[in-house]
Design brief:
2 copies of one chain form a homodimer. By secondary structure, chain A is α/β, with parallel strands linked by helices.
């Protein structure tokens, strides 16, 4: 007992949203977003309550507030505020008993029942004096005047009641007036605010060494620079380069992942480090650091942000192996352990020992690699296999970087069990690779997208829907050919606001290294690959059109605004993406081999349409307009012609 | 960076269950219960993990541990421990990388692939040395021997591998061996362990003043004592008495809640306090404190625990009004505010001002009232309208009491919005009144029971299914008569392990004070009521039988073991209650007016039955046996005869 009672909460605040794992992790938003806040707030008795969200942006010393509104039966309160700067925001909820509001509400009932309210008016005056004491300026003066009017026994009761019930007084008397009565939610919750491109953007992956017209001649930043305008013109935002560092020669892999390289084989860019340097060096065949800077600047001018690969592993020739053998796993015979997944061996790679004795040295060195490239204009990193390095390391290093550079984006390339993928997103990764490539049926897509958009994941997990990667050429693309590539492009670009293509996709490259493998034949991972970007049947025009539509339609720029529509034939997927003033119905034939038809259910009520009045939809892909009527509407899609519609509701 | 890295978690532990609001509130269990614990536990890479729950009981200084087992794909871990003492228990989860387990698993794969494992055996020996250093006694010796055997280059590799893979070594080498590698979940969670009767018991409510044969003669503890054997014989566990304190005379209510009492009117026991004393006094017409003590002892001998009412409000004649006017709400004219819900006035009651200046004095006084009755053998309190007093007060006072007397049970009589009712249960109430009386259709019962048994509420909200109360005579009972009383008795006693009856129920008293009211005519709240317990048609025999079945069938002693069965006619409710070796199918006709028949779906697979083989069920109410076959089985229930079955599956 004693004074501790004074600190006890007058109001209960719980069930605050958004909130991840009791505030252990932040939720994610983009610059300019509104943050919708909810909470369960209640107290004993029949008193009214007032509540607000208090929030502040990075480096703000003072808190701002926004009032919450409520739904009585549910004891649920709602409010919002905007996050207009990059970095870490904080918010929490405060509530207090609304004494004047309660008194005023009771007064109304007493007056209506014809009761004598003279004693009550004196109580009201006391409450207004209290409010005045906590107020300043004109508000204070108004409150004092009102208090005097309520207490004025000379005036008639009707006049005093009219003053007491005036709406303006409700605002003036809004609390809290007494710190002891203010209850604050027990945790301050945080929000990471990223650049808009973290939430909406199109990625393109390119091996600069392949930007050559002769496979025997290694491409360079200079040659790659020539392709920037074409990539930008297709509407991409981020240009992701696999590792650009020196490549080891010891146990170098040959073409098609051969255990032994032939002379002239260029090796895998992920076998990082050679005599020319490690993670902070540039492969001499690609150019110099100055040429890289020039490339980044040229990309920026074209409207493309360069993303680098952050792959924390070393070839046996990496400088760290000699300088810091203690950063690796040392075997009893004093050799360094190469990568293994017994009984498989990966002798061209040494994993780092993140819990070694000099972990401070190693962790700082890893962080410094990021800082080095940030200094050279890179603000986006695609992180290779983060689930094979400690989760605690990622949480630490991402915080270290974002504290100084809140504009940096980290994409997690983890393909592992669901909870590990989610954990990486929670602890700091800005975006995440997904299972999208393996979800090809309507049922799979619906289930997975529902999880991504309707569960708590939508608060922290930003899916990046790469339609292919150098490691993943799905059987669906192998077997479905060009129509399959068109289908998956349309799905990736409309289901998710962030998506990506690995170069070669536009040429529908789909020959696996062997049947049953998801690896490419003659994979660019192990060799230079020359392509004809203008080859017949290429998808550049379609990509350009779809990226343009993404930029023009707000509904395609958000994640959680997705809902699936009934389609009577389940090989045709239908979904709605909606934003204020922008309602899209996307309908896709998932079968790359055959035309199909179906009846699609349009959610008339949600769209504000009536059963009887026809409405018009415009296919943004073809320009065709259709007049539809009622909930069931006919669609026929031929994969040799239209694989899908992006129908905009014409208002 | 620096040493903080050393404290970073090697393993992620999240999604720990059971846990209420991130550990803000304890979960509830009864003495002897097993606590099933689950958690998401994972780390980077492919290392194996080991995990355990650590727990301790009240006043334990050291922690006990129990291993967790896992389901790999889900990264979900499971374990359990028992709580065998009353009071507050704590638990949390610990996990660590299982180096020897990982090494051993890899060794098996290497050996199977025919690899040279001599270097690995040396690594294994180092791991065993580390384990030995952390072990003691025989285990240490065995580990040292095994380490030596693994490292013995003289021995053949096969022998060394055999030693390394021996199962016994797995147990001996079980960690953690290194405090730096031990990750502990960030919160210690708590469990309140109550007496068994908190989770399973039958309540009976009785006004002792009505234990008289002449309404003009006030009943006493002595007269009430004579009824104890009959109540005990019906199988009740708890005998709840409305307030037994002096009753105010100022603004005393008359019979049927008349605004003005007639001479001789006894008043409402909830208008507590008179010139004879307040909450710690006994109404002189009931007897003396010594007679109360005798009554409690006699009840105890009969197997009944006496529960008192804790109603924190005062009549204008309560001693506190004079001694501590500052504990009440003082109006500007220095009068004390009576209870109101404008425009309604309750002039016979003064509410307490729990946030008054001397709140320490008031709160302590309230607590001391409880301690006073605890000293007189009372261990159960039914708390009147707790939702009209501060939630913080209840959390404080319940903790104050349970710290000293962990055997005390508090039942919350709150009928208010769902979140407020749930909050009272979370913050400490042992049991709670419910909406049960207002749930009379199958759909309502299914929805409500699903919420109570399948949501998080099952962890902290123990419903006490009173079938009636002095304030609630539901229309269903008013209109349905005796069959309705039998139906609701059967439902209350089988759907919930804790249920209660207010006296008069067994006589099917169902006349409301006026049409549309849930109040009784000639309510015992305002007058002495004489009854003939042997009146024809009384339900004492049926109550006795049902309470006996509750004691004989473990399935009726738990809450969350409920599942509803399909019934083709929805006016017949069917559900299963199951415990090991005790499978019950309860089937109830909800219509008190007409017989009905239906086909009930028996969950054959869950019961281990097959479609083709007949099985026998025994109606525990009637003794009849039926041979059933397959999933669909016929039931006919006539409310004038059988209102329901409690079918036990005969094995």
């Amino acid at each position: 007992m004693k004074q501790q009672v004074g600190t006890l909460p007058r109001v209960v605040i719980e069930g605050v949203s958004p909130q991840i794992d009791a505030g252990r992790y932040p939720v994610k938003r983009c610059e300019g977003d509104r943050v919708l806040v909810e909470a369960d707030i209640f107290k004993d008795g029949h008193d009214l309550i007032a509540a607000r969200v208090v929030f502040r942006g990075p480096a703000d010393e003072t808190w701002k507030t926004a009032r919450l509104d409520f739904q009585f039966d549910l004891d649920r309160w709602f409010g919002e505020f905007s996050v207009d700067r990059l970095g870490s925001w904080e918010f929490t909820i405060e509530a207090w008993p609304d004494h004047y509001g309660t008194w005023r509400s009771d007064l109304g009932k007493r007056v209506a029942a014809g009761q004598d309210v003279r004693a009550e008016l004196l109580e009201g005056a006391l409450l207004l004096h209290k409010a005045a004491a906590a107020a300043a300026g004109e508000v204070r003066v108004r409150l004092q005047k009102a208090a005097a009017a309520l207490a004025n026994a000379e005036a008639d009761v009707e006049t005093r009641v009219r003053v007491a019930l005036a709406d303006a007084l409700l605002d003036d008397s809004y609390g809290p007036h007494d710190a002891a009565e203010l209850t604050r939610f027990e945790r301050v919750l945080s929000i990471v605010v990223d650049r808009k491109v973290a939430g909406f953007g199109a990625w393109y992956e390119l091996f600069p060494r392949s930007e050559t017209s002769d496979a025997r001649v290694h491409g360079t930043f200079q040659t790659a620079e020539r392709r920037l305008p074409a990539i930008a013109a297709q509407g991409f935002d981020v240009l992701y380069l696999p590792p650009i560092h020196p490549i080891g020669v010891t146990h170098r892999k040959g073409k098609n992942n051969a255990r032994v390289a032939e002379p002239g084989d260029v090796g895998s860019p992920w076998a990082i480090g050679g005599k020319e340097g490690g993670h902070d060096a540039i492969h001499p065949d690609l150019g110099t650091l100055a040429e890289f800077d020039r490339f980044v600047a040229a990309a920026e001018r074209a409207g493309l942000q360069v993303a680098l690969d952050f792959a924390l592993q070393c070839s046996p020739d990496h400088p760290w192996v000699k300088q810091h053998p203690e950063w690796f796993f040392i075997r009893p015979d004093n050799t360094i352990r190469y990568a293994e997944n017994p009984p498989k061996k990966y002798e061209d790679i040494y994993p780092l020992n993140f819990w070694c004795k000099d972990r401070a040295g190693l962790w700082n060195a890893c962080r410094d690699v990021l800082l080095h490239w940030i200094e050279h204009g890179v603000r986006t990193f695609r992180v290779d296999n983060p689930h094979t390095k400690p989760l605690a390391f990622w949480e630490w290093v991402i915080a270290e970087i974002k504290r100084r550079h809140p504009d940096v984006i980290f994409l997690a390339e983890a393909f592992t069990r669901p909870k590990r993928m989610r954990s990486l997103a929670k602890l700091g990764f800005t975006q995440s690779y997904t299972y999208f490539t393996w979800k090809n049926s309507a049922a799979e897509l619906k289930e997975y997208l529902t999880e991504l958009t309707r569960s708590e994941m939508a608060e922290y997990y930003r899916p990046n829907f790469f339609a292919n990667t150098p490691d993943i050429l799905h059987e669906y693309l192998q077997e479905g050919g060009r129509p399959a590539f068109r289908i998956r492009l349309l799905l990736a670009a409309t289901l998710a606001p962030v998506y990506g293509l690995y170069s070669g996709y536009e040429l529908c490259e789909n020959v696996p290294v062997r049947p049953g493998s998801e690896e490419y034949l003659d994979s660019e991972k192990y060799q230079v690959k020359v392509r004809d970007w203008d080859a017949p049947g290429n998808l550049s025009g379609e990509i350009t059109r779809i990226n343009q539509l993404r930029r023009e339609n707000a509904a395609l720029q958000q994640l959680a605004n997705l809902s699936f529509l009934d389609s009577e034939f389940d090989g045709i997927l239908a979904f709605r993406k909606s934003a204020p003033g922008n309602d899209l119905l996307v309908i896709v034939n998932l079968d790359p081999h055959r035309p199909h038809e179906t009846m699609v259910s349009v959610p008339l009520a949600e769209l504000g349409l009536s059963e009887d009045v026809p409405f018009e939809v415009e296919d943004l892909l073809s320009g065709a307009r259709y007049t539809w009527r009622g909930a069931r509407n006919y669609v026929r899609l031929d994969p040799m012609d239209k694989v899908g519609h992006i129908l905009r509701l014409v208002r």
